Amino acid sequence: MTYLAKPKIHHPDLPTNALGYTRRDYEGAISTLCAGCGHDSISAAIIQAFFELDIAPHRVAKLSGIGCSSKTPTYFLGNSHGFNSVHGRMPSVLTGAALANRDLIYLGVSGDGDSASIGLGQFAHVLRRGVNMVYVVENNGVYGLTKGQFSATADKGSKSKRGAANSDEPIDLVLLALALGATFVARGFSGDKTQLVPLLKAAVAHRGAAFIDVISPCVAFNNHPGSTKSYDYVREHNDAVNRLDFMPTREPIVTDYAPGSVRDIVLHDGGLLRLRKLDDAYDPSDKVGAMSYLESHRAKGEVVTGLLYVHPDSGDLHDAMQTVDAPLNALGDAELVPGTAGLAAVNDSLR
Amino acid sequence: MSPAKTAPRINDFVVKFANVNGSGSASANGLFARAILRMGVPVAARNIFPSNIQGLPTWFEVRVVEAGWRGRRGGVDFMVAMNPQTWDKDLAEIEPGGYVFYDSTKPLPASRFREDVTTIGVPLTAITNAAYSDARQRQLFKNIIYLGALSALLDIDPAEIEKLFSEQYKGKEALLEPNRKALRMGRDHALANFQCPLPLRVERRNAVGNRIFVDGNSAAALGALYGGATVAAWYPITPSSSLAEAFMKWCRKFRTDMPGGRKRYAIVQAEDELASIGMVIGAAWNGARAFTATSGPGISLMQEFLGLAYFAEIPAVLFDVQRGSPSTGMPTRTQQADLIVCAYASHGDTKHVLLFPEDPREAFEMGAQAFDLADRLQTPVFVMLDLDIGMQDWLCEPFAWDDSRRMDRGKVMTAKDLDAGKDFGRYLDVDGDGIGYRTYPGTHPTRGSYFTRGTTKDRYARYTEEGPAYVDNMQRLLRKFETAKDLVPAPVITAAAQLTRAGVVYFGSTGAAMAEALADLERGGIHLDRLRVRGFPFHDAIADFIADHDHVFVVEQNRDAQLKMLLVNECGIAPDKLTSILHYDGTPITARFIAREIGEKARVFNVAPLRKVAG
Prior knowledge:
The complex is a heterodimer of chains A (about 350) and B (about 625). In chain A, the strands form three sheets. Chain A has an eight-stranded mixed β-sheet, sandwiched between helices. Chain A has helices at about 40-50, 70, 90-100, 110-115, 120-130, 175-180, 195-205, 230-235, 285-300, 315-320, 335, 340-350, and strands spanning about 60-65, 80-85, 105-110, 135-140, 140-145, 150, 185-190, 210-215, 240, 240-245, 260-265, 270-275, 305-310. The N and C termini of chain A lie far apart (about 70 Å). Chain A has about 350 residues and is α/β, with parallel strands linked by helices. Mean pLDDT of chain A is about 90; it is low at about 250-260. In chain A, α1 (about 40-50) crosses α7 (about 195-205) and α3 (about 90-100) runs parallel beside α5 (about 120-130). The radius of gyration of chain A is 21 Å and the shape is globular. Chain A has a single domain (about 25-345), classed as Rossmann fold, CATH 3.40.50.970. With about 625 residues, chain B is of the alpha/beta class. Chain B folds into four domains: about 10-200, Pyruvate-ferredoxin Oxidoreductase, domain 3 (3-Layer(aba) Sandwich); about 215-395, Thiamin diphosphate (ThDP)-binding fold, Pyr/PP domains (Rossmann fold, 3-Layer(aba) Sandwich), CATH 3.40.50.970; about 415-485, no CATH class; about 490-605, 3-Layer(aba) Sandwich (Rossmann fold). In chain B, strands 11-10-12-13-15-14-21 form a seven-stranded mixed β-sheet, sandwiched between helices. Chain B is globular and about 85 Å long. Chain B starts with 8 loop residues before the first strand and ends in a 10-residue tail after the last helix. β2 (about 80-85) of chain A pairs parallel with β17 (about 450-455) of chain B.
């Protein structure tokens, strides 16, 4: 029913966040994706995360490439500027935007075709540069808009809706992100909002390149027996390494009643990431351990979800470049143009 | 050497250095050119180099030219033949009555020389080996030794060379004396063995004035700095890399906060040209002035993004330093062959704004102006340099700036405007010029946000696939292009000394040879009005100029007559009205070439007054 406009009237009793916004203020246009699409659940998780983080929607810039996933920024944060760029090239556009104004929050939304196939190069370089962003891949292993071709994350042996088997090795973006130097690497599942919302919140608070691979089954082309990215497959094979809560600094930290292993990670901005460990052996600050954990579970056919790696003291591209605190797009003639005085010296040096 | 019998040629000759790449000759050759400039005599210098770091032949040509012509003349009067690999070719290039200077340590048979060329042999290797034991020193000082010999032969004031040494080695004074010593060795040898100076010689003048000697890439980068660019993203490619590197240099000098070293700029060496232009588009969308520098192959890689930038109306600036194409072509040779690929870059119906600087000074001006134009027009703007402008040092007027000038950020709606209730439609043509207002991301909590996309949208930036909305938008983009006509730099029109029905149209680095060619033609009685194109879309004055002449030559440095194509296509000019003069062998066009080509064709067109023939 996507042609019906969403009513703009808010229920007067809708709860507000610290800034006085309701959840509705974080919504966008009605989705035009298929009913039941995993991507819509991710949009809902994004809405909830930003609402709960008390971030004014207009302070977020949302950027995407091309594909079903890249259409989703229209469906959340309607008061944010959005940029639906070209296929596989969101990372470079986001990098440029982040250089221009370091004060905004950058949310990059991409898909498995967009990031692992056509855009693998830009995916790699944006992570290794440490651009301050949240990079979400809505991963369904299939090209939806062009009707069901395999993407580069499709598992070897998985079957398309028409029955063809994929014979190529899959690209595991999470493993790749770890190798490329992303300082926050997580995997979620669109059907598990309890895990996904805290992951998103922690990624927003993280300074540097935060990457979340979200398995998001495609109801039209990849949610059938034989697909390793179907709802059923992921539910049955999900191995969550941890559950986490994210608490911004301004919230009082409540006593944690959970027994056993709880681990707090203090993030760059003072926010607290509280990991409730399901697997005692898992240490998210150990990158080498994370890689081996992922590989050993993959061999068993398990999809590892949760926060896989975080570097709590990471910096970003602006830190590396030593740019000024003021956003570059706010600098004026006085700060940028050396005038005739500057030219006199230049001319003298060229005679 | 036998004493030359020719009359002296003062301040008007061509010296060419034939060297091996990587032998350290560039520094000595640069000193040679600058010393002559310091004597107040103009030079036109060109480095002709291979796509190689070490081993292949490289040449440096210095045209000593009191008249101030800035193009290559063609031909060589004095060859410094330091490369045995190219000996035969180098020798053949010398004009009759000219000179060849060579390292005579190993004697060459007489059959290797020309009778009509005076031979000057200096045992450079022997002198060097006697004076230095270190291999590296032998290599470097051999260059300074020949510089010393040339200073005596051509009457270049050694004090000027020594002054340049002092400037060059400021802070490294230990290097001063060894250089002076090498210079003296060469000079003394020449003075003792030859009749110095030769009839070819430099005489002190005051013909340089306050002009500067600078390459176009440094100048364009300085223009970008003055234009307020804060974000640069680039990928190394000859001949544009030195533009990005120069921007880095200028930024370090002018945009570093002290103390602390914080930077008022961000430069990214991207992973490829796609990422470069993507970053530029992202930064420009977000309100920073941003540019990339590239060459033809890079422009090809940026095509998809350029379509997006055109359609999404993003003010990106591109410096295209053109080289021999297509493909890898001749990466270290010059051409003007990217006009079509830039003017109509990308898929679908697109047209882009191009600027054509003629020299480094204009590269500076247009480098700055490009950012105002891009913001005003909300579209990509290409500054079309070429290798000849970009990588050669040119003698040009000093850079100038008006301190009252402010960046023109174009139509940007602020939070205040939005609070005042102004209607914001990103693609709404409120002023009839085809340009809408934009907002920067993060401007206002509830108003002015919009979604930027490459897909069709209505005037309020809402997604639509309705045909009429698409047509409406495409028509507005055409109106915007019409607006651009009067905003890009107007053509420069110069009337011939005599009333004429013939004209010549050209652009960019061709200007260097054009002025001299037209002066030559004028001496032969052929007069042409000239028009130098400086921007695309074409100003109406260009079509008017063509209409006002019976015959118009279009001179350009590419095979397919790309400027002519644009003129025919955009101005509706009959193709047979325009006669192409094309030069595209990778070397800069010369005055001789233009004068010869136009001279021959002009006779056919009866442009020159025919002499009355008796009977």
